[in-house]
């Protein structure tokens, strides 16, 4: 497995947009003879999922006051707060060689769990739980995301060693349905830290020492200097700079994709929260927007396009969606379940 680090001229790149652009560029343009592992650590940022409405997820005044950026990733899932106190890890794995890892978060976390156990973390307190979380002593220490592109699984997670609880609580606007369904009272009550559970001899590890240790475990090497690396070329950097400017530093990508709609339905499914906004004119769907923290292999814009102009009637919507396998877009949800949810609010039908 190759290691790619966000370094330019030997210096670590903390800019969230550049870091995301590196991964985006590599997954689409760099194909090596083995899988790829990225590390990234950013200046304070809220990273939102591909299908989320930024305005519904963040506390913008707090973010402006504290210089916290926002960046949208190309995978689904929910909003997370990241900063330069915790390292994140991302993988590109050949879909044919990874033993159906897509959607299998337990398998994704297995190497990290084994590594944490060696640092003294009690294995009985570590558990992959829910849809995509890793919990320690009942509290979340990681959330993962995945997608599939060009024959490779693109997956990643962060590991919280020193979380900034105040920023997490203040920068994010938690989805109340999600909070209710998990019976929790606050972000802090469900987010944990790895450090208190490390063996005494590892308690004072800084983030770089922790990262080097994790890299050795994930790559199966004794010293990080042994890592097989791919160094980004000047041509790579030119393309990354262009992608950063056009996408990850672009307001339209981070904020402008979504808007407010006349009617909005939100429901918490096993696959995640799904929100659908509708504009209905003369009984037909004139505009539609699908957001949420679900994961999918295909873009929901295909579903939105299929619903345009369709009468707001169950039979018509079922017919419009008949050619699609919705599990490709949302995970394990049937067309009947989705349409029943869509019709659950009282909206005009004439």
From TrEMBL:
Residues 31-218 form the BPL/LPL catalytic domain. It comes from the Bacteria. The keyword Transcription regulation does not apply. SUPFAM superfamilies: Class II aaRS and biotin synthetases, SufE/NifU. Keywords: ATP-binding, Ligase, Nucleotide-binding. It catalyses: L-lysyl-[lipoyl-carrier protein] + (R)-lipoate + ATP = N(6)-[(R)-lipoyl]-L-lysyl-[lipoyl-carrier protein] + AMP + diphosphate + H(+). Gene3D superfamilies: Bira Bifunctional Protein, Domain 2, CO dehydrogenase flavoprotein, C-terminal domain. GO terms for cellular component: cytoplasm. GO terms for biological process: protein lipoylation. Its EC number is 6.3.1.20. Pathway: Protein modification; protein lipoylation via exogenous pathway; protein N(6)-(lipoyl)lysine from lipoate: step 1/2; Protein modification; protein lipoylation via exogenous pathway; protein N(6)-(lipoyl)lysine from lipoate: step 2/2. The keyword Coiled coil does not apply. GO terms for molecular function: ATP binding; lipoate-protein ligase activity; lipoyltransferase activity. PANTHER family: LIPOATE-PROTEIN LIGASE (PTHR12561), LIPOYLTRANSFERASE 1, MITOCHONDRIAL (PTHR12561:SF3). This is lipoate--protein ligase.
């Amino acid at each position: 497995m190759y290691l790619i680090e966000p370094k330019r001229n030997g210096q670590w790149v903390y800019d969230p947009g550049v870091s995301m652009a590196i991964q985006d560029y590599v997954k689409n343009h760099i194909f090596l003879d083995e899988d790829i592992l990225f590390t990234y650590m950013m200046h304070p940022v809220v990273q939102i999922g591909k299908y989320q409405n930024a305005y519904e997820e963040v506390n913008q005044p707090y973010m402006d006051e504290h210089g916290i950026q926002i960046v949208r990733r190309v995978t689904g899932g929910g909003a997370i707060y990241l900063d330069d106190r915790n390292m994140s890890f991302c993988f590109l794995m050949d879909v044919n060689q990874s033993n159906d890892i897509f959607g299998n978060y337990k398998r994704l976390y297995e190497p990290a769990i084994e590594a944490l156990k060696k640092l003294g973390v009690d294995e009985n307190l570590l558990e992959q739980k829910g849809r995509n979380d890793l919990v320690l002593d009942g509290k979340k220490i990681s959330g993962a995301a995945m997608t599939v592109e060009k024959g490779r699984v693109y997956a990643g997670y962060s590991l919280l060693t020193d979380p900034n609880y105040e920023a997490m609580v203040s920068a994010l606007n938690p989805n109340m349905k999600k909070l209710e369904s998990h019976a929790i009272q606050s972000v802090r009550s469900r987010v944990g830290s790895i450090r208190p559970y490390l063996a005494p001899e590892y308690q004072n590890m800084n983030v770089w020492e922790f990262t080097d240790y994790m890299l050795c475990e994930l790559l199966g090497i004794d010293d990080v200097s042994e890592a097989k690396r791919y160094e980004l070329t000047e041509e790579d950097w030119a393309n990354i700079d262009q992608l950063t400017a056009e996408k990850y530093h672009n307001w339209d990508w981070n904020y402008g994709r979504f808007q407010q709609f006349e009617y909005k339905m939100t429901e918490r499914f096993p696959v995640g929260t799904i929100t659908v906004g509708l504009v209905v004119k003369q009984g037909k769907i004139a505009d539609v927007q699908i957001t949420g923290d679900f994961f999918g292999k295909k873009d929901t814009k295909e579903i939105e396009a299929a619903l345009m102009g369709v009468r707001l009637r169950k039979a018509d919507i079922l017919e419009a969606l008949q050619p699609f396998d919705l599990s490709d877009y949302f995970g394990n949800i049937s067309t009947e379940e989705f349409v029943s949810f869509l019709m659950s609010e009282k909206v005009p039908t004439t």
